[in-house]
Amino acid sequence: MYYVEGASSYYTEGASGYAREERMTDEVTPVTGTDEAPDGAPRLRADAARNRAKLVTTARDVFTTEGGDVSLESVAKAAGVGIGTLYRHFPSRLDLLEAVYRDEVDVLRETAEKVVPNHPPVEALEIWLTAFVDYAATKRHIFTELVEAVGRESELMTHSREVIYGKAELLVSRAQEAGEIRSDVTSQDVLRLVGGCTMMPNFDREQTQRILRIVMDGLRPQ
Amino acid sequence: MYYVEGASSYYTEGASGYAREERMTDEVTPVTGTDEAPDGAPRLRADAARNRAKLVTTARDVFTTEGGDVSLESVAKAAGVGIGTLYRHFPSRLDLLEAVYRDEVDVLRETAEKVVPNHPPVEALEIWLTAFVDYAATKRHIFTELVEAVGRESELMTHSREVIYGKAELLVSRAQEAGEIRSDVTSQDVLRLVGGCTMMPNFDREQTQRILRIVMDGLRPQ
Amino acid sequence: MYYVEGASSYYTEGASGYAREERMTDEVTPVTGTDEAPDGAPRLRADAARNRAKLVTTARDVFTTEGGDVSLESVAKAAGVGIGTLYRHFPSRLDLLEAVYRDEVDVLRETAEKVVPNHPPVEALEIWLTAFVDYAATKRHIFTELVEAVGRESELMTHSREVIYGKAELLVSRAQEAGEIRSDVTSQDVLRLVGGCTMMPNFDREQTQRILRIVMDGLRPQ
Amino acid sequence: MYYVEGASSYYTEGASGYAREERMTDEVTPVTGTDEAPDGAPRLRADAARNRAKLVTTARDVFTTEGGDVSLESVAKAAGVGIGTLYRHFPSRLDLLEAVYRDEVDVLRETAEKVVPNHPPVEALEIWLTAFVDYAATKRHIFTELVEAVGRESELMTHSREVIYGKAELLVSRAQEAGEIRSDVTSQDVLRLVGGCTMMPNFDREQTQRILRIVMDGLRPQ
DNA sequence: TATGAATGAGTGTTCATTCAT
DNA sequence: TATGAATGAACACTCATTCAT
Questions:
Q1: Measured between CA atoms, how close is A85 to chain B, in angstroms?
Q2: I want to staple C112 with a disulfide (CB 3.0 to 4.6 A). Which of A40, A161, C167, C199 is the partner?
Q3: Which residue of C has its CA nearest to D70?
Q4: Cα B148 from chain centroid (whole Å)
């Protein structure tokens, strides 16, 4: 993972990865002794929760490496479970895509929440954009299918836009208020610009770094 | 289509579109009276050539609007021919994808050849990048499938890279030599940056314009 | 429930329903203090017995309303138990179907035993046929699957035929001996005639009544 | 096939069977040289038409003998074609069921049209009812699925009811007007009565004959 | 040559059944 | 013992590709 000089090595791929697993498992296995998760859904058994988490991360990996049109059978096999298990957790292909996507968005939200209080504006933005590049890469393969299925105005999409645009706006305007990036640019422009890089197949980390540098330079007040 | 101040309205969408059709038909119906095309392939009958051309342009349109996973049956129907005719011209799905892609690359090559002698470096680059945005948008849906099938080192990919990188390098280095854009940037960085924008679903022309502006600003010597 | 003029309102739907539940519970919870039921099978705990009974009646209801192709998962859920519990009592789908069917047959047997000593021949027949209509309606959805699985000559089918044909024969021949219905008719003809009506989807009680009337008229000596 | 004394042996199973094949083929291959069937649908190629017809009759047979829950793969195999061919002609399971059902209804309509001008009322009714028994037997397995899918008020169901009820009404009222069957009976009662017989599994021809006799006797003025 | 019918491997999904908790 | 998670065979359906017309 790319990170700027001065950025804490805290934000490494490994760390993010770990955080993600962590979060997912937490989500489904509260530490309390109640029989219900906080949102009222029945609590999953430990092994079921593990399977669910494994499926989401495996699906993300497979979608990212093999493309969005892999068979669910492959995903199940890669996760080491039967196809029936996949379907128990995700009753349709769409449900799996949605879970993967929602997970990615959550990671972005958390990254923003960690980075804002701990870094100066431009640095924070750059770190977050680096994360955005990574997670947008995952999204590339599943987004179209997802949008076509659930619709642009679904709760999923509305929520995700809200989170991502919200965090981007927060980070960009913070940098703009500090006078460190030009003001004739919207946070969405920045997202598009950066996100776009990841959409081209086969980008390598070094190139991304160089590109992000160009973008940050282009963003500075002229 | 986007064009910079002072740029000739020559480079309009309509003009590009026309050029594409024109070129394609030419390609398959040489003006000579022989029974063979210059490369030794048997010459196509006029209607067959028309069918072939129709199929390629239809496929491009369908892939662009419906996504890369449409059935060939749909493509054939949209082109007004039977599936058998499609297969006569393109013995496999891949052959059609390849033809569409090759066509797109050709258009880019021609645009570069027209723009270099007629415009100052940065302007020429900006025009060509605008064209690149348009044509990359088409490519988005078929590229992954294509690469996965033919491999990154196939003749198709090698040739296309050669053409596109070549033209990009030509245009970028020309601008760099004129001292008008920074020198710590490669032409491929530029391509990735610009191309990426079009990969995000739902980009509108105005946003693209704004983004291209940021890119051009980012490219100027700091 | 349909009943002829003069027939005691004794034989109401409610009464039958009650009898069914009653009998089932009895079957699995003998009054003795031994650890075994009379047939040597281990005695069920009270709650297990209740589960078993609940499953059979629920299954009957679900099969009747939703059709014979509902999933056992649905049946279990409708009965308020887990699928594992269902399988503990009925090790295969077939076992459940069989239990439901056997239960229905038992009800018919009991009805015959009540009606014979208490009504004149034709009246008794008509009452029993009315009951037969009701219970055959339940059977409609599961019979085919059952027959295909256990075979026409299985103990289940032999036993059921014996019971139903036996009771029908008893009632019909009693009426024939009384000279009140024609003698060139077998009890099985009567069953088929009456049972068939209920097999057609969407029969209403009034139409059934009219049809039963026709049948009874057709049965009288010409 | 059952037929009463005096009824022409014309109406044998073989004859009906033959008529059915005949009709279906006619339907899709008009004798004229036009490219369209009378209803505007494109004409089927001879072999395709043969396949289609084969599929419908095979499906009928398989549904009747094996039940309505056979796999379409089995049907295709029984018809000697690939599953793809089945789906070309019947894009969904439902379409096949519908075709089979529609075909059966057509046969009933034709039988009525043949029998009315050629037989005295009661005889005509009895012949038609015999046919009705045969064809209702086929329907038994597919009707529920069909109704649940297309709805009771679909064109298919409305049309079929219209045809069958219409013909039954015609035949029954003709017999009632001739004073040969009782007037307190509706044609639908008769249908239900007769149709019901076929709904019970495993009816044999002789029993049907005996039952039809009872019905006819029951129908006579008392 | 153009057409579109036929093919069958592959995919999403369901559900009876088994088994770990 | 009761539960429900896991399993995988089976089915409806799609689509790239072949081939008869």
A1: 27
A2: C167
A3: C145
A4: 19
